[in-house]
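not sure who needs this but someone in the group chat was asking about Fe2OG dioxygenase domain-containing protein from Aquilegia coerulea so here u go. i didnt clean anything up, its just raw.
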Amino acid sequence: MAEKLNLPIIDLSSSDQASTAQTIREACVHYGFFYLVNHGVEDELINKVFDESKKFFSLPMHEKMKLTRKENRGYSPLFAEKLDTSAKFMGDLKETFNIGPIKDLPHSVLNQWPSEEFLPSWRPTMTSYYDKVISAGKKLLTLIALALNLDETFFEKIGASHNPHAFLRLLHYPGEPASLHEETYGASAHSDYGMITLLATDGVRGLQISREKDTKPPVWEDVYHVNGAFIVNIGDLMERWTNCLFRSTLHRVMSTEQERYSVAFFFEPNEDCIVKCLDSCCSEISPPRFPPVRSGDYLEERFRVTFLKA
Ligand SMILES: O=C(O)CCC(=O)C(=O)O
Ligand SMILES: [Fe+2]
């Protein structure tokens, strides 16, 4: 049985920056997860993204396969990815669609879009959502910088949030009859790879976190949906920057009988940004645990090992 979990709630519109930054710090140190409210992305737009996502995943398979994932953009069918690389089962019971940077040339031309004939509102809806979540993410990064006792422009100055390598990912978990496969997950246990993830969920249960990476067996706790809130979590690159002060928490999505949709936004640093332990997070007695790494190289390698096919 999973435990009940009360994640901190961060109000992005609060005028009290100091206390918001302090709550973010506590959330990232203890959970690596929090809820984000008043983030500036309207409910109406979020609902539209879910509607358009459902329309896309309902298309015949041969239409979806015309947009098969290339350069990490486009459609991946069920079992294409296995987020828990150590597990033996065949892959995750989910289908996905990825959209990469939209305005950042030459990356923007790599995106694939469903035909306007079938889905006329798809592209403008996704583009608008992408832009709005980027704005929310940039604002959140200024508070995360304050939470780390850095200047609020830190992530901008080191080039992380300028033309970020951010990916919008639509997810569809079709669900399965109970006990069909003991060891099938919608998304198997993993931590996210990058800087921060902003997740919108549809209210169907399934997402769980395990706070202590090294506890065996892991203790799983349910993350509840909160209307209008993003579920934000810290990724591995942020964990590397902070020398594990902020945790990139293990999470998974259980496969249940109920169909589930979610929309993840992976706000990753600019590909050329070098992620190196922050001075304030290391010392002689606590040296950096990870060597510096170029963000683009790190992310590419993580995709290489988790994708079994497109
Ligand atoms: O669908 C969800 O709730 C979470 C998905 C997720 O963890 C991921 O795609 O990295
Ligand atoms: Fe994830």
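also The chain has a mean pLDDT of 93. if thats useful
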